[in-house]
Amino acid sequence: MESSVAYDAHHLGPLDPRFKAVPVTAWGEDAAAFAARRPRLQDLPTPLLTLDAGALADNVATLARWTAEVGVDLAPHGKTTMAPSLWREQLAAGAIGLTVATPWQLSVALREGVDWVQAAYPVLDPAVLRWLSAPRSGRVLVWADGVDVVERMAPHVRDAAQPLDVLVELGGTGGRTGARSLDAAVAVARAVRETPGLRLAGVAGYEGAFAHDASDASLATVRAWVDDLAALHGRLTEEDVYPADVPGGLVVSAGGSAYYDVVVERLARLHDPAAGVRVVLRSGAYVGHDDGFYREVTPVNRVRSGRLRSALHGWVRVVSRPEPGLALADAGKRDLPFDEGLPVVQAVRRGGDGDTEDLAGYAVSAMNDQHAFVRFPADVDLRVGDVLRLGISHPCTAFDKWGLLPVVDDALAPQPVLVDWVRTVFG
C-alpha cells in the first residue's frame, strides 16, 4: 500500500547535481514538480538506493501499534536515518521523542523542534554542556557510566538555568560503554545526585552489545542483562538515591531493533507514568528494516505481531561482463552497506526498462569502492545494461551514504515510480 505521508519533495526546491540520485534531466527542475510526474525507475540514474513508501508507512505503524499494546514508550534512534521527515512520521505515530548518538545529532533534533531527546552517550563537550545549561523548553536526557564522567561534566553545568537529566548507563563485561557492575552504577548515580546542575533521572543501556543473533543462548544473555538493568533501577529506588521529584518522570531505557521484545518482556512491568516511571525503547532500524541482519533477528519473528519489511533497495546497472559467470555492477561500498553482510540479488530489469523479474542463483561476492562483483551460473543470461534490484543488510549504514533518497510507490512492482524524496542530514 502506498503511503499518504508527504516527505521532503514539497520544500526541496530545484534539484541539482549535489545529489547522486538526481538524473541529469532533472537538474534545475522543482523537486515536487518532478515527483508529481511520477517518473519511473528508468528515468533515474544508477547506482540508486530507494525507499518504499508502503513499507515505510507499514513499519512505522507496526512498531507504534505494538508498543502501545504492550504498554511502553518509544523514542526511536534518529541516527539510523538522520531524516527529519521520517522522524516527524515516527513522532506523529506516537513516539515520545527521539534518541541520538552524538552532540551534533542532538543539536539537529533540537533544531528540528523535537521536545524530548535522549542522548545515548556521555556529553563531555564543554560548549555543548553550557548550551544545554541555558534556558530551554522540552526535555534532554544524557548518559553517564562513570564517576569520572560526572566529574568532567560538573564544572560546565554548575550554573545551569535548569538541571540536566542524567541516566546511569549499565554495561557489562565484553560490552561497549556502561558501568561494569551494579555497585559501580550505584556509585555513578550517587555522584550525579550530589552534583549541582545534574539531576538523576533513571537508568539505561544497550543490550545489543551482548548478542548478535536470535539463538536461545543469545536471548538468554540479553534477558540476564535486562534483569540487571531492572535490578539497578530497583536498588536506586530502595536506597532512596533517586530525587523525590523528577519532572517528566524517571526513565528506564533499553531496546535496540534486535531484542526489543525481550526488553518489554522483562521491563514492561516497571512502566507506570502515573507513578512517575517510563520504560522507553530506542529501536530505530525498524523504520527501514532490511533483507539481511534485521530480517533474521527482528523480534517480529518471535512476537508474531504485525510485520516489518525492507523499505530499502539498491538498484545497480551491469557495466561489464568480462568472463563467464561474472558481471560487474556500478555500485560499491560508497553506495550500499557491507558491514553486516553483502547486498543480495533479488531481481532484474532487462535493459534497465523492462518489468522487474525475480532472480535466483545470483550473488554479490565482493564489493570495491564503486563496483559490485555479481556471480551466477555461466549459462545464465545477464547483459550489460541490465539493472539489478538488491536487498541490503543494516539500514544504519545505508542511509548515511545518500543525501537524498527517492521514495517509490512499491519497489517490488513491475514498474516502480517515484512519488517523493527524503532528505538526510548526516553532515
From TrEMBL:
Pfam families: D-ser_dehydrat (PF14031). Residues 311-409 form the D-serine dehydratase-like domain. It comes from the Bacteria. This is Amino acid deaminase. The lineage of its organism: Bacteria, Bacillati, Actinomycetota, Actinomycetes, Kineosporiales. Coiled coil: none annotated.
